[in-house]
């Protein structure tokens, strides 16, 4: 009679496995081949990974695009501010001339 799979394979949370601060789906240095297999079986399938990568790529693309637009808007606002400061200087000069 063969032992059940649970009896043959130690659970991932055995004291010999250092998982401090990590979930059980991380492959760590020193893991046995069986621990790597057990961990790998818990990881998402390729389809899910591809979908996640695609979603992250789209999100990053949107962030980069938004960042570019924000930088353009910032440059425009800085230009507007520079013009406003020039106008303020002109108005202050006119006020000083009128006060004399």
TrEMBL record:
Residue ranges that the Swiss-Prot or TrEMBL entry lists as coiled coil: 67-94
Keywords: Coiled coil
Source domain of life: Eukaryota
Polar residues bias: start-end ranges: 14-23, 31-43
Region (Disordered): 1-47
Protein name as it appears in the record: Uncharacterized protein
Record organism: Riccia fluitans
């Amino acid at each position: 009679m063969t032992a059940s799979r649970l009896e043959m394979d130690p659970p991932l949370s055995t004291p010999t496995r250092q998982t401090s601060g990590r979930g059980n789906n991380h492959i760590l240095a020193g893991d046995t081949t069986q621990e790597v297999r057990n961990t790998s079986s818990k990881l998402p399938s390729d389809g899910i990974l591809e979908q996640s990568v695609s979603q992250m790529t789209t999100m990053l693309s949107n962030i980069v695009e938004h960042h570019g637009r924000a930088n353009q808007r910032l440059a425009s606002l800085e230009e507007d501010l520079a013009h406003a400061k020039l106008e303020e200087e002109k108005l202050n000069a006119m006020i000083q001339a009128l006060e004399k």
